[in-house]
Design goal:
The structure holds two protein chains of two kinds. Chain A is 0% helix and 47% strand. Chain A is mainly β. The chains are: A mainly beta, B mainly beta.
Chain lengths: 118, 112
C-alpha cells in the first residue's frame, strides 16, 4: 500500500469554475477526513466519512462544497463556483476506527491538493 | 470547543541545540494529544502521541508528556539536527471525539 494519495497535486482555476479533487485512502481504513490548510495555519476540519456515510460537516463547509464517498473507498471533494478565498491546500486523511468509536489509531495524511483560484 | 495553542515561529536553532516547542490545549473530557510534523513538500506525519495523563510519547529523539494539570503537551528534543527542519503541529482529539483539532504550527529551522 502506498498510503493516502490525492489527485491532482496542484490545481489552478479561474474564479467561478467548479473543481473536483479525489482522495484514495489506505485500503483497509474505514474513516476518511478532509481538511483545509491555508498558509501559516494549521489544518481545519471540513468533513469526515465512516465507510460511505458522511457523519460530520464543519460550518466552514459552505453550500458550494460537497463531498462524497460512494462505495466507502475513494472520496471526492467538489467546490462549485470557486472564489479566491477557496485558495488553500486541501488535505485528505484516513484511519481505522476501532469498535467503540473514537480515533484511537493514527490518521495518515496525503500530500494534499493545492488549489489556486485566480 | 476544543482548541490548541502553540508558540509562534519560526524557531531558529543551531545544530545540537535543545528544542522546546510549547503547546497548550482546551478540551472537553479527556483528549488524546498528538504532534505531527510536515517536512517541506510532504504531507503531515504523526511524530508521537499520548492518550492519557502523564503518558510520554516519544519518537526519533523527540518527547512530549501529557500534563493534565497544566493542559500542556510540550515537544522537546535534546539535540536537534538540520534534518529536523520542518513545521510541527500540536493536535488533539477531544474525549469521545472523532476529529483532530490542530494548532497553527511552529516552523523549526536548524542551522549548521
Amino acid at each position: 500500500d502506498t498510503g493516502v494519495s490525492q489527485d491532482p497535486r496542484h490545481k489552478i482555476t479561474k474564479r467561478g469554475q467548479n473543481v473536483t479533487f479525489r482522495c484514495d485512502p489506505i485500503s483497509e481504513h474505514n474513516r476518511l477526513y478532509w481538511y483545509r490548510q491555508t498558509l501559516g495555519q494549521g489544518p481545519e476540519f471540513l468533513t469526515y466519512f465512516q465507510n460511505e456515510a458522511q457523519l460530520e460537516k464543519s460550518r466552514l463547509l459552505s453550500d458550494r462544497f460537497s463531498a462524497e464517498r460512494p462505495k466507502g473507498s475513494f472520496s471526492t471533494l467538489e467546490i462549485q463556483r470557486t472564489e479566491q478565498g477557496d485558495s488553500a491546500m486541501y488535505l485528505c486523511a484516513s484511519s481505522l476506527a476501532t469498535q467503540g468509536g473514537g480515533l484511537n489509531t493514527e490518521a495518515f495524511f496525503g500530500q494534499g491538493t493545492r488549489l489556486t483560484v485566480v | 470547543g476544543n482548541s490548541v495553542t502553540q508558540m509562534e515561529g519560526p524557531v531558529t536553532l543551531s545544530e545540537e541545540a535543545f528544542l522546546t516547542i510549547n503547546c497548550t490545549y482546551t478540551a472537553t473530557g479527556y483528549p488524546s494529544l498528538f504532534w505531527y510534523v510536515q517536512y517541506p513538500g510532504e504531507g503531515l506525519q504523526l511524530l508521537l502521541k499520548a492518550t492519557k495523563a502523564d503518558d510520554k510519547g516519544s519518537n526519533k529523539g523527540f518527547e512530549a508528556t501529557y500534563r493534565k494539570e497544566t493542559t500542556s503537551f510540550h515537544l522537546e528534543k535534546g539535540s536537534v539536527q538540520v534534518s529536523d527542519s520542518a513545521v510541527y503541529f500540536c493536535a488533539l482529539i477531544g474525549g469521545g471525539g472523532n476529529k483532530l483539532t490542530f494548532g497553527t504550527g511552529t516552523q523549526l529551522k536548524v542551522e549548521l
